[in-house]
Design goal:
The chain is α+β, with helices and mostly antiparallel strands. The chain has nine helices and eleven strands.
Length: 224
């Protein structure tokens, strides 16, 4: 059983739970580590855990039958995902791959549904989370159809700083240009060119092993 203070640190949703709810959550979570490049699960899997990222970076997306990869979003520390699949009790409709060494917190189905049935605070979190994720994927469709590579990359980075989906994140993120390219669906070389353009325009600052956001609002609306 994980410690209460540790759970509150890695899971923003736990901070509004009462004592009994916290105990139930603690007892239903285990941790698991994945190496860079390792599949966490693939589309069609019955992966029966609601999942939080403790550390590292993962990519959510799909791979077509022809081998083409389409990235949906990145998953950084503090992100919890998979609640829609849990509620519908269906197989996963996407792949999740660790882009670097990643540690996950896994809540089993029984605990998830106990909280769903008994905790008003947990349900409030799920409603906000699902609404925000819906907006993210509607935006993803729009970006793919209307924006150029630089704008798509800018929006992909901006989503990593969404305060609801990725709480407790500062304006700096440790991420490589290759990882940014993977999340944006473009090559590392193209990602490098797009990042340099965004840096020249004063939206972000490239640093060794990471990126610091200078103007998040302009980054979110880049290409409009």
């Amino acid at each position: 059983m994980i410690a209460e203070d540790y759970l509150r640190r890695i899971a923003i949703w736990s901070r509004e739970l009462d004592a009994r709810e916290i105990e139930m959550a603690r007892g239903g979570i285990v941790e698991r580590s994945y190496a860079a490049g390792e599949s966490i699960f693939v589309r069609g899997d019955h992966f029966d855990y609601w999942t939080g990222v403790v550390s590292g970076l993962a990519r959510m997306g799909i791979v077509s039958r022809e081998g083409k990869t389409t990235s949906f979003t990145g998953l950084t520390a503090g992100a919890w995902f998979g609640e829609g699949t849990m509620l519908k009790k269906e197989a996963r409709r996407y792949d999740v791959v660790a882009l670097r060494d990643t540690r996950l917190a896994l809540m089993d189905r029984t605990t998830f549904f106990w909280l769903y049935e008994h905790s008003a605070a947990f349900n409030r979190f799920l409603v906000v989370q699902l609404n925000e994720r819906l907006g993210q994927f509607i935006g993803l469709v729009e970006y793919g159809r209307t924006l150029d590579a630089t704008a798509r990359l800018a929006r992909s980075i901006a989503w990593l700083f969404n305060p609801i989906l990725y709480p407790d994140l500062s304006r700096h993120i440790e991420i490589t240009q290759e990882e940014i390219g993977a999340l944006s669906g473009i090559s590392r070389q193209n990602a490098n060119q797009c990042l340099k353009r965004l840096e020249r325009e004063g939206l972000l600052r490239l640093e060794y092993g990471g990126v610091t956001i200078v103007d998040l609002e302009r980054l979110r609306g880049y290409g409009d």
